[in-house]
Amino acid sequence: MDSLTFLARLSADHWRPGTASVSWGRVLAVVLLGSVLGALSRSHPQAAAQPAPEADVEVGFVLSDSSRAHRQAAETIRREVRSLVGPERRVRFPERYRRVLSASDSTALGRLADDGPGPAVIIAVGLSASHRLSLKSTRSVPVVAAHVLDPGLQGIPMADDASGAANLTYVTEPGLVRENMDLLRSLAPASAPALLVPARMIEGAPALAEQMRDRLERRDSSNVSWRVVPARSTAEATLNALPPDTDAAYLATPLPLSSVEQDRLISGLRTRQIPTAVHRGRELVDRGALATASAPSADPISRRVALHAVDLFRGAAAESLSVKLPSPRTPYVNESTARGLGFSVPSDLRLRATLTGTPTPASTDSMTYAQAVRRGVGANHELSARRSGLAATRENVRVERADLLPQVQAGARARQVDADQAAASFGAQPERALSGSVSFSQTLFSPRDVGDLEIAKRQRAAGAADVERSEQDVALQVSSAYVSVLQARALAEVRRGDLALSRENLSLARAQEESGQAGRQQVLRFKTQAAQARRTVLDAEARVEVARARLAQVLARSPEGLAGVAGLSPSASVLTLPESVFAEHGHTPSARQRLTDFLLEEGVSNAPALQALDEQIAAARRGVEAGQQSYWAPTVALEGQLNSRVLEGGAGTESISLPGGPAGAAIPQTPSTTWNVGLSLSLPLFTGLQRDAQIEQGRARLSQLTAQRREVRSSLEERIRARTEQATAGYLSLREAEAGRRTAQETIELVQDSYTAGAADVLDLLDAQEAVLDARLAEVDARYSFLLRLLQTERAISRTGPLQTADERAAVRERLRAFMKDGR
Prior knowledge:
- By secondary structure, the protein is an alpha/beta fold.
- Among the domains are: 1-13 and 26-42, no CATH class; 174-293 and 329-356, Rossmann fold, CATH 3.40.50.2300; 579-606 and 719-757 and 766-823, no CATH class.
- The strands form four sheets. Strands 1, 2, 3, 4, 5 and 6 form a six-stranded parallel β-sheet that branches. It has a four-stranded parallel β-sheet with strand order 8-7-9-10, with helices on both faces.
- The two termini are 70 Å apart.
């Protein structure tokens, strides 16, 4: 009741005839109250009565069969209808208004009114049901046929952009059959193609197959012989129905086959070397069919059917609704299938088509990340020179150890002297003599020799640590080049996806132009966009080749001899610090700090640079100690010699008897064999201050190395902290980039639907496309930046995955778990 009605009733109560008296105060109060209520009514229009809600509507469904594909399609349409209607009315889908078509079931084609007034709209799902309902002579309930292959081929009514038949509308893509065949013929010849349609579509209509065949041949400009083959519920039955000379197949989707039978059908066609075009959708192409000319990222049929249904709820005439679906034309080709059939994808088609199933090299020809790192480390020339230098350093140890081992020498001497001189020697010097000698010496203690040996050992260990450090550096260099190839390849794929999206949007604009909803300038805008996208694809592919050349260079191979590069995931087991480490410990500041502490401890204890300096410091310290010992510690050696005259002859070999002496007395001769052994000690007292200078030089060297170690450790700790923070931030950025890409993808799908429905303009679509491109590029950048930071973090702690064994990598992760557990 409004304020004026209330006022009238209240006034009538006080002015009824026969009233004995009038209360002027009450009348005045009524007038004032009426004024106030009137003002309130004018200032708050929302207080006015709301219209009654619209009545509920019921929708019926006719399915071509009870397959999972058709049931899922019906459920998708239900969701779309509910989302479009919203709260303005309730839509119900009663089970009593649901039918599954059979060859002889005519009740499914009736009004579906077993009781009550019947549904407001009937939706036909699948080619068979859509065909049957579209060709009915009369329809008492509006029908929306969701799947029409081609109105001209099937003989379905069409007047301009609508059906023109009472209570009938449908969804179709005019000209798609021709486009699919043109695409198929750009890859393979086709003179005897077969059109595979659901068997129920032509059962009970014997003239339909012949009609479709005739119309296909009249449309086809080439001299071909078309066949229309029923696709049954099993792949074997469908394949057996194909004529023997069939050289191409056209699959009219959706097919009445289960997922397993679809795979068998496609496999059987490939086995028979029959190239196959799919009417629409990328699923069957991904599973092995050759190509389709219409592979939109999101299937728009369900949304268009729902839009038709909502328009019918609101009273629109079915025969006036547009039946043409402005679906994006996105050629989609399975390159692996093409190669298996002996065809190659032409260069011009590669630029305008989206490729799937791109064949990767066989496992024997592909190169994994671990193989690349190991080959790079093994083939690096500078590293090979360092290894040769290390081998020479190892021999220095043997050289220095030789001074402490026994020294044995053997000698021989042949001598001939003057006969008179020999005779005058009284037998001490024969005229001819051959003698031999053996001498040895063994150093028992020598401060200098012992020190030199230990210094040589330390230098050998330092050289080994330097080589290990160089190996880690080369491994990181190879890793960076490897990731660059993967990133360039992923960016090229994103650019190709943007090109495909540009073509989708160009097709949308052309469809809008054909329907009169958009002008020519929108088509030109997307033509320009597609041309720009093609240029970026060419540039991106060139960058892939540049990255491959760089990888070949660090592997010391020619780019032509470089095998395929396998992918690398941040969660790969070959990584010492996989993604899971940062996923578990990278979300809170305390966990990140604890992770940093562990990596600092691990990196400092394992750093080859610090190990090399430690060995050099120990060597310098030992040199100083040896120099100091030489002041008071003598060199002690054991020496011995054995001499023997083996042969002698001529004068002087006989001893001379002494005159006047006892009988037989003679001058004694030198024995033919002599030996000696002794112990020697030597202590240099003054060497011209050489030792003092060497000791001071060693102390200065020791001080230099100690300071250098402090600097290297400080730099190492700073680098580990930085790499840990960068890797953690890279992980979080990757998660955000993935979420951003999903949001952008959802946005572009919604904008495409809105643009198709005329609710969005070309700028909205261009902005959405740019947002998708930016989001995909950001995701690729985040993924490979994170991967590279993982590898850099492994290098910072000297735990490069491919240079570690599986047990060593597992041991690092186990130590990390124990460390983090103790920290809690």
